[in-house]
Amino acid sequence: MSFVSKIIISSNFEAVKEKLLSEYSSSIIKFIPKEVTDEFLMDNAKEVQRESFIAENKEKIIVIMANSFRNEAQNFLLKLFEEPPKNIKFLLVSPSRNLLLATVRSRFICENLKEQKIKKDFDLSPKNLDLKNFFAFLQKNENMDKNELLDFIQDFAMKTCQYKNLDEKELEYFYKFYELARLNSRASIIISAMFLLLQERL
């Protein structure tokens, strides 16, 4: 399968790298720099140029991944991008289109890989809200991070609304729990408070 030079817009560099290595032989892929860098510099651009002019009998993909790109480094590579040596293909990976000069973008097709968040399935609902299930859930999730906690509160609020018609005051409690989570309150404290409150009302 022949590779088509392009730009990929994504901040998930590792996922892009894994996909590329699963589709093409590692022997034809050159990462410059070898690890993702905060900024693609002129020295990196010169390395890309040197690698591009190493003669190849088969296709070679030069992969450039960075969180930002110096304008002078991009300008240095414009001619190379426009007229690459035989069998040389380029893949540029950037978190944003705006980090790349319009003159660079115009030389490639551009793919925007939208990172879809995989929503965690929380195994606690009002239907099984007893002390045993609560402690099992708390033990498993007491160290969940802020974003997971916010997702859990939203998930549990939706499940509770499906299970029971909540009045305005009861809905307000969920809003308060959500605000506490945004202020970095500990997950174990918020989950325990939710359990105690709902035990009284469900």
Automatic annotation (TrEMBL):
<keyword id="KW-0548">Nucleotidyltransferase</keyword>
<protein>
    <submittedName>
        <fullName>DNA polymerase III, delta prime subunit</fullName>
        <ecNumber>2.7.7.7</ecNumber>
    </submittedName>
</protein>
<dbReference type="InterPro" id="IPR027417">
    <property type="entry name" value="P-loop_NTPase"/>
</dbReference>
<dbReference type="Pfam" id="PF13177">
    <property type="entry name" value="DNA_pol3_delta2"/>
</dbReference>
<dbReference type="GO" id="GO:0003887">
    <property type="term" value="F:DNA-directed DNA polymerase activity"/>
</dbReference>
<keyword id="KW-0808">Transferase</keyword>
